Amino acid sequence: xxxxxxxxxxxxxxxxxxxxxxxxxxxxxxxxxxxxxxxxxxxxxxxxxxxxxxxxxxxxxxxxxxxxxxxxxxxxxxxxxxxxxxxxxxxxxxxxxxxxxxxxxxxxxxxxxxxxxxxxxxxxxxxxxxxxxxxxxxxxxxxxxxxxxxxxxxxxxxxxxxxxxxxxxxxxxxxxxxxxxxxxxxxxxxxxxxxxxxxxxxxxxxxxxxxxxxxxxxxxxxxxxxxxxxxxxxxxxxxxxxxxxxxxxxxxxxxxxxxxxxxxxxxxxxxxxxxxxxxxxxxxxxxxxxxxxxxxxxxxxxxxxxxxxxxxxxxxxxxxxxxxxxxxxxxxxxxxxxxxxxxxxxxxxxxxxxxxxxxxxxxxxxxxxxxxxxxxxxxxxxxxxxxxxxxxxxxxxxxxxxxxxxxxxxxxxxxxxxxxxxxxxxxxxxxxxxxxxxxxxxxxxxxxxxxxxxxxxxxxxxxxxxx
Length: 467
Known about the structure:
Blueprint: H1 25-36, H2 44-76, E1 79-80, E2 87-88, H3 92-100, H4 102-143, H5 154-168, H6 177-203, H7 223-240, H8 247-251, H9 260-290, H10 308-344, H11 349-352, E3 355-359, E4 362-366, H12 368-387, H13 391-419, H14 426-459
Antiparallel strand pairs: 1-2, 3-4
Helix pairs in contact: 1-9, 2-7, 2-9, 2-13, 3-4, 3-13, 4-5, 4-10, 4-12, 4-13, 5-10, 5-12, 6-9, 6-10, 7-13, 7-14, 13-14
């Protein structure tokens, strides 16, 4: 039983001894939409430009359909072994361990925490890109749209890293709930600003020519580059669809009746449908506005110059979102490493000792291991971001890494184990076919994004990139 739960009556507690959850289908839907509306939304117009109207719209709908199906399978695995009366799995990894055993648990942990680490690097890139875009918006406004307004991302990445080093020392990030709430609100802010500016361009009749099959092969785009860009675009869409890292955190807020899996299934349908509509709007409007010249990020690629203050405001929203989102993704990684260190060296004062510290009226504890390890991690994430500051390609790589294992492979394998589906039966074959096709898509997206990163690195000197 939780220490906090001891002061409550048994009737006020859930079956696992924790304080009764009060969430419902609508709150879960809100959480889903909040999580998936991230900076990746701003790359969807570029993805649409590579794929064209036909494949772009079809890809978003197919990814959404697969996501609804597999997230519903995940919902059924919240409890073990019975989806209604079984024991709760509080994390994705716990569910994988319960249904698939220790080896898959380790594999899941490597993928999950590897993706979390990659996302923190991606957020560092995104923040610096937006901070530079704010400076460029002001520069273009003051000096004209043809002025030389290129700046290094590095000082902004370093500044963002310093802020994250300070925030990372907070042992219990849940105490900064207000920052996460503010981050969620601003995510809608920049998505709406980007879509609104695109709509204004289209409504004014200044939209560019678009194509059914995406950017045209010609002197500026070879057939090979077109294929690689299509793969990278699929990775961008895959990243935008992902909330697997927090799906059980959302489920763990739901009240016990109706059963959590039934509530979550309805929330999955509503949340992913709302997400898909928003993605189609952002991607479609951005593509309609810019055509073949659609920038990788519609708020930082300067398809828009005026009103400069609105472009700057959209990028301010991105920065605020990234400050909170970095910690939301980094804290689970911090926690697992520190838990492992405590288990491995329980008698080490360097790892376990907390030193009360007071600065003015502020009192807090300093742990040397936490101070050094978290600082080193943020520094390394910043260095990697400075070496590879390529927004679209890095987001595509993250999407490719996480999509197949977390959204397709593990849910299907857990479903097969839970329902005891016979090997080589029709359903078993269909499920494995879906998994295999999604693996091919993820692999192609990963290869395409890695090629894009390597191609960009060969063009620019490492640590000398200017946007």
